[in-house]
Write a structure and sequence with these properties.
11% helix, 16 strands, homodimer, globular, mainly beta, DNA-binding, eight-stranded mixed beta sheet
Chain lengths: 230, 230
DNA sequence: ATCTTTCCCACCTAGGTGTGAACC
DNA sequence: ATGGTTCACACCTAGGTGGGAAAG
């Protein structure tokens, strides 16, 4: 019966705890996407992520390692889908173009990693994966208390990590010590895939996407795609 | 970016935190099995739980509600499979009998609920379910850091809940404020079901157990069971 | 007309069941 | 022989995919 470390659970309505927040960036904290090669492949074609009302998981997964934390400090790691720019996008003639102003969107909501505030040692010992989150096009106001992130379709987003360190003195508070926004993980939210190259990458790399044994080697269904990628 | 509440994660090897422990039972804290009728049905026939090397989930689930906590206090809830007595059991002539001395067993390990230390308000607002745990007959020493609970086959256990309250003054420590051991949830660990009545209750009530549409209404398999229960 | 969204679906992965034969 | 344990397996539930038609 020994507490080992603390975590703060996401998406719950209580609001006790530590309202005091400061900032003090620690340059020793480093990040690395664990599946960087895969993200790169997608990024070359402009990554698309499906959004649905019920919420769709990200693929590739947003998974990374972190290094340079104080092994005994308590850290919480937040993910925010930051609007990349003020454009609306359109896929035409085989590529994405900015077309006009972005929709008005409510501010991006940070989502704390399900581990919550735990010691640096544990954060650094395993890849960190946002596995429960789902992307949705439902407005935030309609959401149930789940791991849904509201995005606007045909808009570009930058997954961004913020790391907070919990301090205990002179009083309990927490401070921002690192941010990270890997460009290769940016994506455009869509309700249906636009670029067939992206579709093929998803099918070829996501075990849940059919195709591997399905229609790839001749099935009943007729297909109409063409093209090149992996 | 607001912490809402704290939790302590289970089964991790770190050991920082709050070694000081006290006891002060609070009689206002009450518990209730959410699926009491089902537990009762099993208990009438003497509940059996399968243990395997890989770990087997409990059925019925150990799920309950709690009441009478301080809504703003931080509580952690532990589950311990306490050896019920010093007997070894055997199923013979259609019923369980004590036969000789229990094996020597290492002390029962409490498992903290995955929510860890969170405020009473949250504990009281939803049923509490130990959903991740699995029962195994592997010795503790062989285990990976998962939610495995080591039990001895043919021995009787009493699922027991312990509730700890985290105090902040005069220093950080936690104290035992309630225990609960519902007799209807006791069970005998087995590597294969002994009582056919128990098997039938499992099949009829666990959605993962085949039988509902399977061999119940005539299939190829020949069966050799007989009997009565639900 | 054109573009975007929604919905249902077949088809997967992942993993929780008891079975019965083999093993010890 | 006996009785407990293990293992591979068929058969489920649960849920993550893109497809395609239909709707907006």
């Amino acid at each position: 019966v020994d507490p080992t470390h603390f975590s703060i659970q996401p998406n719950l309505s209580l609001n006790q705890a530590f309202p005091i927040k400061t900032e003090e960036i620690d340059d020793r904290i480093k990040f690395r996407l664990t599946n960087e090669a895969l993200w790169d492949n997608f990024h070359k074609h402009t990554t698309e992520m499906i959004v649905t009302k019920a919420g769709r998981k990200m693929f590739p997964k947003f998974e990374f390692t972190i290094d340079g934390l104080d092994p005994k400090g308590w850290y919480g790691i937040y993910l925010t889908m930051v609007p990349k720019d003020q454009n609306r996008y359109k896929f035409q003639a085989g590529e994405w173009s900015a077309v006009g102003q972005a929709d008005v969107r409510p501010p991006a909501m940070p989502v704390i990693h399900e581990n919550g505030f735990i010691v640096g040692n544990v954060w650094m010992s395993n890849p960190i994966c946002y596995d429960r989150i789902k992307l949705t096009n439902l407005p935030q106001s309609d959401q149930t208390n789940k791991y849904l992130i509201s995005l606007a379709s045909m808009h570009k987003y930058q997954p961004t990590i913020s790391v907070y360190l919990m301090n205990q003195s002179p009083h309990y508070h927490y401070k921002l010590v690192a941010t990270w926004a890997p460009k290769t993980a940016e994506f455009i939210a869509v309700t249906a895939y636009q670029n067939q190259n992206v579709t093929k990458l998803k099918i070829n790399n996501n075990p849940f996407a059919k195709g591997k044994k399905g229609f790839r080697e001749g099935s009943i269904r007729k297909r109409s795609h063409s093209s090149s990628p992996d």
